[in-house]
Automatic annotation (TrEMBL):
Keyword match Hydrolase: yes
Protein known as: L-asparaginase
Domain called L-asparaginase N-terminal: residue spans: 49-241
Keyword Membrane set for record: no
GO molecular function, one term: asparaginase activity
Protein family: Belongs to the asparaginase 1 family.
Amino acid sequence: MTFSLTSLSLAHVARAARALSLFRRSLLFVGCWSFAAVAVSTAAELPTVALFTTGGTIQSKGKHRLTLSEYNDGRVTPDELLTDLPELKTLAKVEVTEISNIGSGGVTTELLLKLAKSINATLARPDVAGAVVTHGTGTLEETAYFLQLTVNSAKPVVVVGAMRPFTAISRDGPYNLYNAVRTAATPDAAGKGVMVVLNDTIHSARFVTKNHTYHVETFVARELGPLGFVDSDRVVFYRNPLVRHTVTSEFDVSKIETLPQVDIVYGYQEASSAPIFALTKAGAKGIVFADSSPSYARAFSAAQAEGVVIVQSDRKGAGRVTLSERGAGRGIITADNLNAQKARILLRLALTKTSDPRQLQRIFNEY
Ligand code: ASP
């Protein structure tokens, strides 16, 4: 019995192997054709992709090829970035605008507004297919989410960075940039909001977060996963974000020169409420709490009495903050499942429209 079963399995295996080899040969055939198709499309008119550079590790130099942290030995210019990657010429006509060349910890409101306005002006041109932004990974998710709320075009916008500097062995920057331009040039990428592409993975700016201090596989969307992948043969999408973004966003920064101050306070055991009083005094218009603490109660009320809007986020990194009757009664807004740094971005923009708690909660429910 055992023997006959085994021989049956062997026969199956042999048949499967024959089928697999036939399949492989046909794949090779299809592969040749798709290669020919790629060759034809490179000869044809290429799409224009606008590249906005801001700096970050992708443009950073280290002393040695093994310098994988503390790489403070200058930065490459946008020209060097492009010269280093001649393969981009087969994908698109890349037009570069240098916004800055800094680490992402130094990104300011002024820079965010300049970036959003430049992208909006460029994407309004009919000849431009999409935009790519180079950025440090540290605060990349904040800029990506800001653009998701303020770019008013359905054309793809892709934010890209690298975990290893330009000078490192096995650096990830060039292929990330190549894949970002491929994604921005892909018609299927339109209407998906702002995307973050690193490590062959496409994430929505709304859900992505940096998850590891130095691994190249650092960007994740904890509960919801990626939108798609940049595979060797094509860019594949499996999902669409359903929240409001880009063309359905109500935020318009075209005439805005600055944004209200919003800060973040982190909750922990026996947390001091001193930061809440200090921020209120320093002129904060909103405070986002990454978790709360019982000791905050008095400071909450004092801040609210000064007109400070309180938004409740959470430090766990996944899951919605649900709206309790008690919280709503005290005028506290919940951040849905936005982490504190993204809730801060949304609150700053929301405060340009309203300070009515019901309207603010609607905004947090919709974006
Ligand atoms: N320090 C870098 C920054 O600009 C880190 C990075 O790009 O990964 O955020």
